[in-house]
Structure formats: structure tokens, C-alpha cells
Amino acid sequence: MATRKRASLSSTTEPPQPKENTQKKPTSDEFQISPPKSAVILVLSLFFFLPYFYLIFHHYKIEQELKNSILINAALSLIGYFITVKLIPVASRYVLRANLFGRDINKRGTPQGEVKVPESLGVVVGTVFLVLAVAFQYFFTVDSNWVVEYNAALASICFMLFLGFLDDVLDLPWRVKLILPSFAALVLLMAYAGHTTIVIPKPFIPYIGLEVMHLGWIYKLYMFLLAVFCTNSINIHAGINGLEVGQTVVISAAIVIHNIMQIGASTDFDYKQAHVFSIYLVQPLLATSLGLLAYNWYPSSVFVGDTYTYFAGMTMAVAGILGHFSETLLIFFLPQVVNFLLSLPQLAGYIPCPRHRLPRYDPVTDKLTGTKDGTLVNFFLRVFGSMSEKSLCIYLLVLQALACCFCFFLRYILAGWYK
Question: Membrane spanning segments where (predicted)?
Fold first, then answer.
């Protein structure tokens, strides 16, 4: 994760303290987790729940069976939120014992910059997510036609969670990180039984002469690349407190709203089932991510690690692929696409790529200044000027929300004309 500086094992081993000093006040190097920032979570949740309940209960006439399954999944997800909030302080103590901690580089030169912050707390979110997904499948049977793909999706997500934690422990180089998601994506593609066709946009039908085009292995290659992109894009659009989890929350909320709109507007049963399947995966992701954000919001008490970024990216990719809205998903990821294009010269090795491509922090003004590194975070600071870390995160999340709103607007104006 880009917001921390990992300390070596030798530097973290402290000499044993005399018995009489064990009751002394904790130093700045000792960890004390802050209470969850529930007010921030409440405000963010209102932006989602208001349109969510309006669409489900008022705007669309959704079949009662589908509506019940969505709401049961939402109730389980809400339980997952509270479990996540309770488990993170417990897990934080264990990861600190294992010397999995970091120091916040964006607070270097201040007392906060010297505090050991527990790392890789995304493992809590991933574990709770998988338990919820399995419990939902066990108690509320998923349609038999979707069982294989549902289990393949969970296998891909679990595989990516493991690889992300492996990265946090071994601190793998960038080029290896780009390859890791491809292994998890293969699990999904092996079980994919959906269509491999695309609907030709209406303006191009006279030139192509087809309304539907069968792509075969090319379509599966596209899904493979999409899964790899989504997983890595969350990981490289990072560097400030709350950004990784915050962008996941915004995109996940947009995915759920999009799925509900498609379920309500469609009359095709299989099409509805695909979007319901997507909701089953994204609602637990959204709820558990909100639980993590309660501790990761500025000033962060925990770091999420590559464990979370890989897990979150793969979950959203799987939901988009098996829900058959990969084009829409890419527009939701528009800031991540821009960040990837800005990062490409450094990731490809044409321009030197430092270990941490973070903004420059000034402890006197408590503001961040953009560097020449190719990230959206630095580009945003170069364009709009120096600002505090909290303000920068809020602006970037607003930008993410605007990208999602642009996607909804684009689908609305092109409906009936483009497809």
C-alpha cells in the first residue's frame, strides 16, 4: 500500500523492558486505535440509501421474490458491517505482534508520522465478506443455474485475497503485482458459461451488417484483461488516508444502484438474474468496506494493505463480468483509467518509478504538494494547488462520484439510440 513505509524486522525488534516500566504511559510509538468515525460513515451511507430504497420500494415494481432476496442479502451485509467494526481493533493487535505495520509517510515530521499503524487490515474485510457470501448461499439457495459461477467468483476473490496478503508480507515488486491478478482471473474464466457475444451499436449496424457479433475467445480475453485492470487500478490509485476504501465504496454503491435500475427496467428473467447475482456480491463488499473506512478515514488508525485493494478490485470485476455490464463498469472506473494512463510510463519502466509515488508533505503548512510522478493524486495537486490530505481525499472521492453520475447520464441519453 502506498501510504505506509514498511520497517525492517530488525528495526522493529525492541529490547525487553524492565518489569517496573510496564505500567508507564504509552509512547508515541505504541499503537492505540481510535474509535470508528461513525459520523463519516452515516453521511456517506445516506447518499446511497436514499436512492437505494426509493428505487426498490417506489420507483420500480420488482418481483417480490427478487426483492426479498436482495433485502435479505442487504440485512446480512449490515450484520457484516458491525462484525467488521468489532473485529478490526482485535485484528490490529495481532498484525502488530507479527510486525505488520507501517508509518504514514504523508505525516512524516509530525508525531503522527512516527506511530506504528497496523497494516493489511483488508484481510478482515475479505474474511467477513467470504463468510457472508457462503452463509447467504447456504441459507438462501442461489438459483442452480448460477451456483457454478457463484462459487467460481468466490474462488477468484478468495485467491486474490490470499495473493494480496502474500504481497503485504513479502513486499513484492511492482511488475510482479501486475501479474498476480491474472491467476485469480483464470479461475473465473474456467467456469464462465455466459455468452461471448456483443450487441452492435445501432449506428454501426448498416456498416457491419450484424446486430450481434460472436467474439468467442476474444471476449474471454477482454474479460481477463478487465479483471486484471480493475484489481490493479484500485491498488495504484492510492497514497492518502481513505482513498482506496473510499473509491471502492463509491463504485460499489454505483454498481448496486445500476443493478437495481436494470432489474426494474427489464422484462428478461435471465438478464434480471445476472444483475441480482451482481448485487449478491457487491452489497457485502459495500457494507464491510464501510466498516473498514470507519477506521481508515483521515487520520487513519489502520492501513488496508494490498490485501484489500486486490480483493476489492477483483470483487467488482467479477460482479461486472458475471452481471454482463463490463462497459458500464469501465466508465465507473474512469478516474482509475486516467490514473493508469498517467502511471503507464513509470510502470512500463520508461520513466524511473520510485517505491512510493506520493505527494510531498510539508509539516509546517500541513499540506500536500504534487510531484512529477504520474498519478492522478499528484496531477490533481499540480492542477489545483496544495491542500490538506483530508481535503484531497474528499475532492478525489467527489470526482469518483461524478464519474459514476456521468455514466448514468450517458446511459440515459444513449438509451434507444446507441443500443
Answer: 39-57, 69-91, 121-140, 147-166, 178-200, 246-265, 277-298, 310-334, 392-414
